[in-house]
Amino acid sequence: MTRSKKTLAVAIAAAVAAFAVGAAAMPRPPALSAESRGDSALVEEVRAVLAETPGVRDRVSVAVIDGDTVREAHFGATDATEYEIGSVTKTVTGSLLADAIDRGEVEAQTPLGDLLELGSSPAASVTLEELATHSSGLPRLAMPLDRVLPTIVANYRAADPYGSTVDQLVASSSEQELGEKEYLYSNLGFALLGQALATAAGTDYQELAEERVFAPLGMDDSFVPTSTDDLAADAPTGFTAAGRPSEPWTLGADAPAGSVRSTLADMTAYVRAQLDETAPGVAATEPIADAGGSSTIGYAWHTTDSVTWHNGATGGFTSLVAFDRDAGRAVVVLNNTGASVDELGFALMEDD
Amino acid sequence: MEYITGFLALAFTAVFAAGSLTRGKAFAAKSRLELVFGAADAAVVLFGTRLFMPWGSVPTWLWLVPVAIFAVGVAGAVLRWRDLPAVRPDKPRRRTLAWAVVHAVVLVAVVIVVAG
C-alpha cells in the first residue's frame, strides 16, 4: 500500500470511528412510561393528548374530579408517588394568607415591613395582598450580583438555583427597587409572603403549611422541604425538558414560592376542598385583581374564564391544578419532567 | 433558547470540517494545533448539545447530522496532518502556545461546569 493510500485508509477509519462514537452517544430521552393504571378511558385520553404535545415524558399522574367521582390515570406511578409541585405551592401560601386574615394575625393591607426586618427599604411598604396578587412591584427574583453566575450555572446543571437563608432573602429584598404596582409574576414576592406569615404565626413556613393546610385536609404525604436534608435518600427526581436528570429543588428560604412535594392523592384532596369551598383559607381563590389578558387573580390563584388554576415547574417537574365551580370539575396533573402539562390539564378541564 | 445549541453544533462542526478539508484563506487550518483545537471546540459543543437540546421535542436522529459533519472533519484532519506545521510559522510561537493553554483551560472548565 502506498503512503497516500495508507493515509486515506487511516482517514476513513478515523471518520468511521468518530461517527460510531457519536452514534453510540445518541440522545435517548425518557419516554412516557408504558406501565399505566387507573381509569382506562382516561389513560387513553391522557396518552393521546401527550402524544400530540411535544416534550420529554416519564411519570405522569392525573386526576379528573366531577362532583363525587374521581378518575385517575397513572403512567409509571401510583397515587402515592411523590412529585415536586413547583409553583402550585404558591396557592398554599395564598391559602395561608387568607387563613391568617381569618385568624386576625394579619390584615390584607399589613405592610411587609411590620413582619420582616426590612428597615426603611421600598419593600417594607409592600402589603401582603400586593404580594399575593403579584402586584407589589417587586421583580420576579432577587438577584444580587454575587448570585448571577451561580444561578446561571445551576440552571445549566439542572440544579436548584435557590437556597438562600431567610436572613439572606430579607437582606437582598431590602435592596430591591419597586416597579409599577401592576401584575408581574414574582417568586420573590411569594417567598417574602410565606416568611412574613410564618413570622406572624411565630413559627416557620414548613410548620405553618403542615398545621394549617396539610393536616386539616389529611395531606399526610405532603411537605415543604427547604434543603436536601429534608428529603428521603430515595426521594424521586425528574428530568429536564431536554431529558437530563434533574436535581431536586428545595429552594431554601424561597420555599413558599415553590418547594412543596406531594402526591396525586393529596393534591386531589386539596383541589376537592377548593372546589367545594371547605379548604382552609379558601377565600384565596376569589379573584380580586387583574392578572393581564382576560385573567384575574386571587391570592395566588389565577382565574381565566371560569377556570381557577395554578401551574408549577421546577427543574425536573411540572404540574397543573385547576377547578371550575360552575362546572363542578377539577383536574390535577403531576409530571416528573420539565415539559409543560398545561395543555393536557386545560384539555381535561374542557372535556365533556 | 435550548435549540440554539443545535445550531451551535452545526456551526462548530462545519467550521472544523471546513478547516480540515479546505485550503482557502478563510477557513483552512494553518497548523496542526488549529486542527486539534477545531476538533476539540466542536466536540465540546457537541457534548453540550447532547445535554441541552430538548430531545423530547426534536427527532433524535438529527443528532447524527453534526456527528457526521464532525466525522468528515476528522477524516480531513488525518489527510492534512502531514502537510501542516505544528504551529503557525507566521505567528510568535510563545504567544501561540500561551493562547493554546488558555484555550484548553477554557474547554476543560466548560466541560466541568456543564457536566457538573
From TrEMBL, chain A:
Signal peptide start and end residues: 1-25
Where are the bilayer-spanning segments?
A: none
Its keywords, alphabetically, are: Signal
Domain of life assignment:
Bacteria
Q: Where is the Beta-lactamase-related domain?
A: 60-340
- InterPro entries named in the record: AmpC-like, Beta-lactam-related, Beta-lactam/transpept-like
Instruction: Please name the Pfam families in this protein's record.
Output: Beta-lactamase (PF00144)
Is Signal among this UniProt entry's keywords? yes
Its name, as the record gives it, is CubicO group peptidase (Beta-lactamase class C family)
UniProtKB/TrEMBL annotation, chain B:
Keyword list (alphabetical) reads: Membrane, Transmembrane, Transmembrane helix
Could you list the residue ranges that cross the membrane? 6-23, 35-55, 61-81, 97-115
Q: What species is given as this protein's source?
A: Conyzicola nivalis
Protein name per the record: Lipopolysaccharide export LptBFGC system permease protein LptF
